[in-house]
Amino acid sequence: MSTDPILDCPLDQVPEGPEFIEAAMRWHFSPETGSPFWLERAKTLGFDPREDVRTFEDLRRFPNVANELRDVRVEDLIPRGYGPDADVIGVYESGGTTGPPKRVVLLRDWLERLMHRTQQGLQERGYPESGHWLALGPTGPHVFGELVRWQAARRGGIRFTVDMDPRWVKRCIAEGRGDEAERYAEHLIDQSTYILETQDVRVLVTTPPLLTRLARRSALVELINAKVAAISWGGAHMDPDTRYLLRTEVFPNVKLYGTYGSTMILGGLAERVVPPEEDLVIFDAFSPYIMFSVVDQETGEAVRYGDRGQVVMHHVSKSFLLPNNLERDLATSVAPPPGQLGDSVADVGPLPTFENETVIEGVY
Amino acid sequence: MDELIRLDALGAGGPYHSRSRLTITELTGTPVAELSLVPRLFVQRTMAALREARTLPAHERATALARSGRLFATGVVDGIPAEEYQHIVSRVSGMPITVVRSATAGIGRRAGEAYRTTRYARPQGAVDDWRDPLTRNGQAVWTRRGDVFAVHAAGNHPGVHTLWLEALALGYRVAVRPSRREPFTPHRLITALRESGFGDDQVVLLPTDYAVADDVIRDADLAMVYGGEEVVNKYGNDVRVLPQGPGRSKILLTGHDWESHLGTLVDSVSAFGGTACVNTTAVFVEGDPAPVAEAVAERLSAIPSLPPEDDGAVLPVQPVADAHAIEKYLLDHVNGATPVLGGDGVVDDLGDGSAVLRPAVFRVDRPDAPQTGIELSFPCVWFAPWSRADGVEPLRNTLVLTAITDDDGLVDHLVEDPSIRNVYLGDTPTYLMPPWVPHDSYLGEFLMRTKGVIRT
């Protein structure tokens, strides 16, 4: 069975949603082309995706299989249709917040597609045409650093890295060793200082907590304002007040754009370009490949535009299928741009907590 | 209330209306205010600004404090007259209105006295200025241990906000993280301080999410943190932090004449609605505590259940669910104690979503019973037997101990014990806090140090 051309459609074209979904289902669930993982999993789905899943809405029929990606052999995740010589860029893992990490395989054709989209986005947002990039964030098993490497290379720059191991940070905090996490984070800032001081870094890619930490050092803030043209943040939430302060007070001359995504959907998407007075971060989907739904936390039903709910992410491409991956983020559901499948999401963040827990004893 | 009161953060650049806000509700669940919560980045930058700020000269500080006290207690601050402020605090915190009124007046008075009260803590050998002629032969000069002081405030009683005024009087720049339960008082007080001469970068209000709370302390030189046992455990070893932990105030009653002290006992338990750290939570009686407990219970049971804004209200009010949670905690911890009052429950539903917490009196059968350490935010007291053979041990770990006794030898031991922070003698209620008497040592002892200066 040959590949449906719609799955390999030219990078600058957007395939029709239903037609694409149908082709993807045929690909992932035909014995000749599907991955051993999905072909085996299909036996217990209770429906035939090739018959029963024809639209974006139909993707809801799938269970969330993300947890199964903790144990599966990575070979079993590659669709057979790629043949024995699938062009594997690498295997990447989730952060490991909730148990052993989940694994995904990054194949070249998907990377090309994602990079094409990313380059369009960088162009649109006026990122510098040349100069180097500094990725202050997770590399190693995490896709974050890898994607920055490709972005930098596409724009003729070099990616410098300061590696952060998020699992170690989470473990320190979980075990009540906040001072150790603190020391580690300061160590990362120290290392990024050496690079920023000596190299022509034009783009800084990092996480909101590290950006806040960078802002503690006024010499570093001056250096970034003098050298860096754009900051991309991702990997964690940025609350709207922090964003406002960064844009107006800390880095007034630097472009600041968020990215929202996840290892599990094999990518991240830049925030929508809106007039600065709108003061809202919205992420649109990369339809029909990466899509979002915002659902009620209790019922799982889609919320109305303007309401908040929990984010569900979907990845549908030739290289990989992962519908209904429930994230632990809350977001406001936003009407999508014309032609996009699923919702756009805004104001992504956790629930605010003022106190640690209810303490009854005592007068305070 | 048609429109929500806007409680902005008060940053170094002026009020900040944040995008992330917490709705403050009154007892029935009706929203009354929106409190701006600031993120870590805002905290960092504000604390850095405090560090950079100048300190007003001492006489200007004293003048500004006095002016702010008058404004706070009697004026219109941020569009809110004093009476309205008091009503809101009462309706949000459930504290009886008369308690809020006297706390308001108290804060006003203490602001006016703040500079003077810092003098009590200054060692006799120390002077304020290196220019003092005494330094010519060598002298101690009283100096600040740092420049920036942070407070994790409590919301149990507006009066907690009198103490840090002394830090301002001593020339510290001060950051206050308010309690969610009652942010109105620090917001009003800091606004009044700013209208009275303090700069925006000299005293700030930083309402934050729990996750950011520690940043306020980290970026200060010294800090004071209100809380229970957990706060003492967390910060007890940090020399930069002064924990204001449990009060566990007690009364010791020896001899046979307890009837004439009944008023003092009842008032010590129930003043301020029983919400303060200086409220008595355990009474140790030489001889049989039962008749004393019953007499106290009888007096406490006569207190009416009223909404907090009623002039006759004495008892605290909470949202019904919170009241039940406190009641459950109490009943879960009775653990064999004999109920004298409130053994069947303490919640008196007012029918509007709020409930009065009625007094509770229990008897335990030995002085070292663990229940005597339970401190709840309403009038709740544990009576225990005590004999001279039991000694000081059961009376330890106490903010205020009133000892009604003729035994001077015992008083010697009580005064010497480092875990008893104040000893009041005779018919003295535990809640007395005259400004010249230290509350938990003078704050100045923590904020200041002596420095040797010799001029030749």
From TrEMBL, chain A:
<dbReference type="InterPro" id="IPR042099">
    <property type="entry name" value="ANL_N_sf"/>
</dbReference>
<protein>
    <submittedName>
        <fullName>AMP-binding enzyme</fullName>
    </submittedName>
</protein>
TrEMBL record, chain B:
<protein>
    <submittedName>
        <fullName>Acyl-CoA reductase</fullName>
    </submittedName>
</protein>
<dbReference type="InterPro" id="IPR015590">
    <property type="entry name" value="Aldehyde_DH_dom"/>
</dbReference>
<dbReference type="Pfam" id="PF00171">
    <property type="entry name" value="Aldedh"/>
</dbReference>
<dbReference type="InterPro" id="IPR016163">
    <property type="entry name" value="Ald_DH_C"/>
</dbReference>
<keyword id="KW-0560">Oxidoreductase</keyword>
<feature type="domain" description="Aldehyde dehydrogenase">
    <location>
        <begin position="165"/>
        <end position="368"/>
    </location>
</feature>
<dbReference type="InterPro" id="IPR016162">
    <property type="entry name" value="Ald_DH_N"/>
</dbReference>
<dbReference type="InterPro" id="IPR016161">
    <property type="entry name" value="Ald_DH/histidinol_DH"/>
</dbReference>
<dbReference type="GO" id="GO:0016620">
    <property type="term" value="F:oxidoreductase activity, acting on the aldehyde or oxo group of donors, NAD or NADP as acceptor"/>
</dbReference>
